[in-house]
């Protein structure tokens, strides 16, 4: 009888340890997913900034248009698109894009981007 109770206790302990391991594994996977998602989102900003700083304005315009097809409300895409048009002295297009940016953001703020 005593051996049966010890055996049941051991199995209960094994199940609890296994459940703890599974929960920690799920937590680690979720944290990794958030990190990877954040890095992918930062990839656009990093690439766009590099294009802008190296004077690749037409490439940046094309890149922003492609990105906006996937994420039509991305404030940084509008921001870099407007800046690229401005640098190319396409002021009407720059103004149109920046007005769209102001409309697409909530009260002039989104993702840490302060417009006014």
Keywords:
mainly alpha, Serine Threonine Protein Phosphatase 5, Tetratricopeptide repeat, 4 helices
Question: What order do the helices and strands come in, and which of them pair?
Answer:
Layout: H1 2-53, H2 57-70, H3 75-87, H4 91-104, E1 109-110, E2 113-114
Antiparallel strand pairs: 1-2
Mean pLDDT across all amino acids: 88
Could you estimate the helical fraction of the residues in percent?
Answer: over 70%
How many helices? The count is 4
CATH class: Mainly Alpha
Uncertain spans: none
CATH superfamily: Tetratricopeptide repeat domain
* Computed Rg: 25 Å
Largest sheet: 2 strands, antiparallel
What would the principal axes of the Cα set say about the shape? rod-shaped
CATH architecture level-2 label? Alpha Horseshoe
Annotation, overall tally of beta strands:
2
Give a short summary of the structure.
The protein is mainly alpha-helical and 116 residues long. Helices cover 80% and strands 3% of the residues.
Q: Can you offer a commentary on this structure?
A:
The protein is mainly alpha-helical. The protein has a single domain (2-114), classed as Serine Threonine Protein Phosphatase 5, Tetratricopeptide repeat. It is built from 4 helices and 2 strands; from the N terminus they run ααααββ. Strands 1-2 form a two-stranded antiparallel sheet. Strand 1 (109-110) and strand 2 (113-114) form a beta hairpin. Helix 1 packs parallel to helix 3, helix 2 (57-70) runs antiparallel to helix 3 and helix 3 runs antiparallel to helix 4 (91-104). The longest helix has 52 residues, at 2-53. The radius of gyration is 25 Å and the shape is rod-shaped. The mean pLDDT is 88.
């Amino acid at each position: 009888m005593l051996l049966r109770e010890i055996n049941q206790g051991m199995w209960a302990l094994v199940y609890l340890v296994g459940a703890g391991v599974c929960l920690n594994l799920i937590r680690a996977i979720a944290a990794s997913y958030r990190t990877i998602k954040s890095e992918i989102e930062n990839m656009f900003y990093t690439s766009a900034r590099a294009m802008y700083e190296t004077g690749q304005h037409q490439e940046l315009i094309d890149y922003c248009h492609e990105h906006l097809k996937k994420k039509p409300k991305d404030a940084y895409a509008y921001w870099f698109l407007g800046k690229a048009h401005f640098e190319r002295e396409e002021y009407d297009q720059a103004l149109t894009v920046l007005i769209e940016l102001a409309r697409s953001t909530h009260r002039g703020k989104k993702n840490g981007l302060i417009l006014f």
